[in-house]
Amino acid sequence: MVAFVIPTDYRGCWRRVSITVGDNPPRANQTVMWLQAAHGFGDVRIPLDADGETSCFSGVTTLDRSGSVPRLRWAHDLNLEPIFPADEGDVEWHGDDLHESGEFTIDGAVVPYVEVWRREPCSNGEQVVLTTQAERAPSVFGRWVRVGDHSLLIVDRRAAGGAFTARYLRRDPAGVWREALALGDEPIKDSPPDATTLRAGDHVAIGDLQWHVDEAATPNSF
């Protein structure tokens, strides 16, 4: 059975603790943040050392429970890389951590991997997903995902001669949004979207872009 609405257990902002590939020891050579709402997701990966790679993508997630272990599938429609392999993995709980396991193909060989994900505090608040309106700016594609006190804005302007940019922000206890990760040089001038002022299906103008509201929910409506 495939679920097109992601259960609340899997929603929130997740930080990757480590990745284990093949027989190698676990490592953490990137700062990886994955923001998951009921449908939409965003993911940004910034290297910590020379072995790390920069990656960023977004799209829609589904959950497949037909097997012995649940499997998450992330369908990308916004991607820093021109080609990205199928993105899916079996998921199991180990305490509060979510372990994702699957296979990579490296130099023609199939290699197993395990990623350990840990949910960040204050992830269970408002959930908002916005996508740019293609008819208003066909050469610009963006998505904005907010879960609680975490926000990830991704905008691809490369088709218009611009850049691919991403900004991950966290809201501090004083209510101030602060940038924690950045890809590209374009600053964020607007606050992350507020679910209490939006409804799914709305169209809103933020900055120089027009957005479609894909999701807008408060905790009491999950």
Account of the 3D structure:
The chain has 2 domains: 2-119, Lipocalin; 127-221, Lipocalin. It is mainly beta and 222 residues long. It has strands at 2-3, 12-21, 30-36, 40-47, 55-64, 71-79, 88-94, 97-106, 109-119, 127-132, 141-147, 150-156, 164-171, 177-183, 203-206, 209-217. Strand 15 (203-206) and strand 16 form a beta hairpin. 28% of the residues are buried. It is built from no helices and 16 strands. The strands form 2 sheets. The protein has an 8-stranded antiparallel β-barrel. The model has no long low-confidence stretch (mean pLDDT 93).
State the gist of this model.
By secondary structure, the protein is an all-beta fold. It has no helices and 16 strands. It is globular and about 50 Å long.
The CATH class label of the largest domain is Mainly Beta
Distance between the termini: 21 Å
User: Can you tell me the residue ranges where pLDDT is under 50 for at least 5 consecutive residues?
Assistant: none
Annotation, overall tally of beta strands: 16
Number of structural domains: 2
Work out the helicity level: under 10%
Record the strand order, biggest sheet: 2-3-4-5-6-7-8-9
Main sheet overview: 8 strands, antiparallel, barrel
**What's the multimeric state?**
single chain
Here the CATH topology of the largest domain equals Lipocalin
What is the architecture of the largest domain at the second tier of CATH? Beta Barrel
Cα gyration radius (Å):
17 Å
Keywords:
single chain, 222 residues, mainly beta, Lipocalin, eight-stranded antiparallel beta barrel, seven-stranded antiparallel beta sheet, 16 strands
